[in-house]
């Protein structure tokens, strides 16, 4: 047991010109202060205290040879030309050394800081210092310092040494034995003279322009408990759990593929093999008939009319001889690659009832190359985006480690397990699911792509004329986006804070946007957006997200401008969708809105007629109502978490479109095969569980670090992962199942002619 001495001094003098100076000389250090003791705050405010008490640094705290004498000199001096009364009291501290798992209560104030000694037990390599208080204010600082004299225990020097963090009601610091060669350290508690560092205001006792105050009552009751942290075996268990959990998805995929292979072989050997067996890949070219019921009411128009008065035998066959299918002009422009239908494509795309054959008339190879640009562009974006991100977060982590300032990063400090130079390894490890499942999705898409190419090489006419056109570029882009979401989320959680929030959300915007584009591309392959315009739109969204975080808190002007952009963009996109892309923004900037107003007037006001495209109109009305509601909500409430607000807009639009697609699919007498049905149910269940954990807020960079720590909670899984880590696990699985829904949703249509597949 180590003993320590505490010196208490008091002086009734209020003369700041002639303070009383106290100098304590010890064997290995000198400690000095003055009375009145002056603390400085913002705007040149000063806080003076006439009572001061300080703990003297033990000269040999590491000695285990028993008690020894310490000679201490206390010098008292003043330059005052008159006598000054003072009081000096030296006491011995009975409870200077903290014990493991034993709470200790004490009191501190700005002029009476406290610190205590802790020694690592023999079998403990890491501990968590937990500090709690019933009162939010006064703001305090908890510091961990090496056994060096003097101890920095005042507001103006506590940040000079060791690791520290500000505190209101709760603080937690993880300390490892390897960081302290002497296997012991000091825990220092400092009360700040002002509360601005913790989100507070000027002390209530200060009125008007008074910049000098005396003896403010800023006493805080604190309780400190030091508990052992997890050992190495928990790290190993957590890593095995993380990887095995997601590798099980690989095993499940292999089993499903193997079962499907066996079933196809058995049907092939019995002569009952159908052109499509639920995998989305054509396997034979036996004659088949359409599965669309004869009495289908979706669009009862003649087959010949679906090709503009001509019989269309193979809408996706190669171009006429002599055409340049590899021309970069054709790949990247809006011009159709089939000149012979140029004259009637406007007529076809504005028919009341459209079929897939009407919107899959361009050359398959050119369209596939167009969609592959999504894949190559997102790889380029990912590389250029990720490299500076990684460099920046490494710098952040280095600054935290060198300065010891734990207010830089917004961790859940009650469940932040360090590894190497990383302060919260668990938050990084939990993102492995996005990367593993993104790679698995790429493998699944690659398998389908290879089988489809084999069918194409066999010149299978049913591969060309039946089912949804197989363009895999957007699927590849989705897989890369999921992997990059894991990488960038891990980078963000290296040091989560106000400056790098966009790392965690940028690819979430892209994932939501790509899913909507893929869903639209399924039945509109000829008129979907190009990769360049899509990624440019994502860039605009990310810029708005950054501006919203910077200016959205108090800037009403920003919310007005953003809401106008939101509403106008919704109207412009609605017009494009309603007219199947036949109204170009570039050709007539205001024409879209003029056309929309004209249609609204003629169809709904002048004639009160039924809209020409009822299903599309219903979807767009509901979609616009949802988006306008978001815009009104933003104007009225101005949510502080603007990044999540933008993400909510994307997700709601995606869910709305997916629900519309499935409803229209079932309405058109199409069916859901077992695999997509299972994926839909799994997606709904896993997303519901994931969102529950997402809304368990454990920290918030919108508040001060001290206020954020009030939300910290202990680990809930394996003693290693917290609620947000569970969100990472479940959201990765939910996104994977969501992607599988889009990949397999229309597998039932591979036996249906395209001129029988309705467009909606």
Could you explain the architecture of this structure?
With 760 residues, this protein is of the alpha+beta class. Among the domains are: 4-61 and 72-201 and 213-229, Jelly Rolls, CATH 2.60.120.380; 366-542 and 670-759, no CATH class. 43% of the residues lie in helices and 13% in strands. It contains 17 helices and 17 strands. The strands form five sheets. A four-stranded antiparallel β-sheet has the order 9-17-11-14, with no helix packed on it. The protein has a four-stranded antiparallel β-sheet with strand order 10-15-12-13. The radius of gyration is 34 Å and the shape is elongated.
- Structural class of the helix and strand makeup? alpha+beta
The percent range for helix content is: 40-55%
Distance between the termini: 79 Å
Mean pLDDT metric: 81
Oligomerization state:
single chain
Give the biggest sheet.
4 strands, antiparallel
Strands, count: 17
Which sequence of strands runs across the widest sheet? 9-17-11-14
Q: Beta-strand percentage?
A: 5-15%
Shape: elongated
Q: Please, how many helices?
A: 17
**Model regions low in confidence, pLDDT < 50 over at least 5 residues:** 282-343, 582-589
Question: How big is the Rg?
Answer: 34 Å
């Amino acid at each position: 047991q180590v003993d320590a001495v505490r010196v208490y001094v008091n002086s009734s003098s209020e003369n700041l010109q002639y303070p009383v100076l106290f100098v304590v000389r010890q064997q290995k250090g000198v400690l000095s202060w003055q009375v009145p003791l002056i603390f400085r705050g913002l705007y040149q405010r000063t806080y003076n205290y006439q009572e001061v008490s300080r703990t003297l640094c033990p000269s040999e705290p590491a000695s285990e040879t028993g008690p020894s004498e310490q000679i201490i000199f206390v010098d008292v001096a003043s330059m005052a030309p008159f006598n000054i009364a003072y009081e000096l009291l030296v006491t011995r501290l009975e409870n200077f050394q903290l014990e493991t798992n034993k709470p200790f209560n004490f009191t501190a104030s700005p002029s009476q800081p406290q610190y205590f000694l802790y020694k690592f037990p023999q079998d403990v390599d890491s501990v968590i210092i937990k500090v709690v208080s019933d009162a939010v204010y006064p703001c305090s600082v908890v510091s961990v310092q090496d056994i060096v004299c003097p101890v920095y225990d005042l507001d103006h020097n506590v940040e000079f040494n060791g690791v520290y963090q500000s505190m209101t009601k709760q603080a937690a610091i993880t300390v490892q034995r390897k960081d302290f060669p002497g296997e012991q350290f000091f825990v220092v508690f400092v009360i700040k003279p002002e509360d601005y560092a913790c989100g507070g205001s000027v002390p209530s006792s200060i009125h008007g322009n008074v910049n000098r105050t005396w003896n403010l009552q800023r006493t805080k009751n604190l309780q400190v408990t030091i508990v052992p942290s997890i050992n190495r075996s928990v790290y190993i268990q957590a890593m095995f759990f993380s990887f095995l959990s997601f590798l099980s998805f690989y095993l499940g995929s292999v089993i499903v593929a193997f079962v499907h292979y066996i079933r196809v072989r058995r049907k092939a050997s019995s002569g009952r093999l159908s052109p499509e067996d639920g995998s989305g890949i054509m396997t034979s070219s036996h004659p088949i008939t359409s599965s669309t019921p004869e009495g289908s009411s979706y669009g009862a128009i003649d087959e010949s009319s679906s090709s503009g008065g001509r019989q269309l035998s193979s809408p996706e066959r190669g171009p006429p001889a002599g055409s340049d299918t590899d021309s970069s002009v054709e790949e990247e422009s809006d011009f159709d690659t089939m000149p012979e239908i140029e004259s009637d494509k406007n007529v076809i795309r504005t028919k009341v009832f459209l079929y897939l054959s009407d919107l899959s008339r361009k050359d398959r190879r050119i369209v596939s190359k167009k969609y592959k640009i999504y894949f190559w562009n997102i790889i380029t974006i990912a590389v250029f985006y990720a490299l500076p991100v990684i460099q920046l977060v490494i710098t952040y982590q280095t600054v935290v480690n060198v300065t010891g300032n734990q207010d830089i990063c917004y961790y859940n400090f009650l469940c932040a397990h360090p590894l190497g130079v990383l302060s919260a390894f668990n938050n990084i490890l939990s993102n492995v699911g996005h990367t593993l499942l993104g790679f698995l999705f790429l493998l699944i898409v690659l398998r389908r792509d290879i089988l489809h190419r084999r069918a194409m090489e066999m010149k299978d006419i049913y591969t060309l004329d039946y089912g949804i056109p197989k363009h895999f570029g957007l699927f590849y882009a989705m897989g890369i986006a999921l992997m990059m979401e894991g990488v960038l989320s891990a980078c963000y959680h290296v040091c989560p804070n106000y400056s790098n929030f966009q790392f965690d959300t940028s690819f979430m915007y892209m994932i939501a946007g790509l899913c909507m584009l893929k869903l639209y591309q399924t039945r509109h392959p000829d008129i979907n957006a190009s990769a360049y315009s899509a990624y440019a739109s994502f860039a605009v969204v990310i810029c708005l997200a950054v501006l919203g975080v910077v200016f959205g808190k108090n800037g009403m002007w920003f919310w007005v401008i953003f809401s106008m952009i939101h509403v106008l963009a919704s109207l412009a996109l609605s017009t494009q969708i309603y007219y199947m892309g036949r109204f170009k923004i570039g050709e007539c900037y205001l024409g879209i809105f003029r056309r929309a107003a004209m249609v609204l007037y003629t169809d709904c006001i002048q004639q009160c007629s039924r809209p020409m495209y009822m299903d599309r109109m219903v979807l767009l009305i509901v979609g616009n109502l949802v988006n306008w509601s978001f815009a009104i909500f933003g104007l009225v409430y101005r949510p502080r978490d603007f990044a999540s607000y933008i993400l909510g807009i994307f997700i709601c639009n995606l869910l709305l479109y997916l629900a519309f697609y499935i409803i229209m699919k079932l309405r058109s007498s199409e069916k859901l095969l077992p695999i997509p049905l299972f994926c839909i149910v799994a997606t709904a269940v896993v997303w519901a569980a994931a969102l529950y954990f997402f809304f368990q807020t454990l920290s918030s960079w919108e508040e001060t670090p001290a206020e954020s720590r009030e939300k910290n909670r202990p680990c809930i899984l394996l003693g290693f992962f917290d609620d947000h880590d569970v969100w990472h696990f479940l959201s990765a699985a939910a996104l994977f199942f969501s992607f599988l829904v889009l990949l397999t949703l229309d597998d039932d249509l591979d036996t249906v002619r395209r001129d029988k597949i309705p467009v909606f």
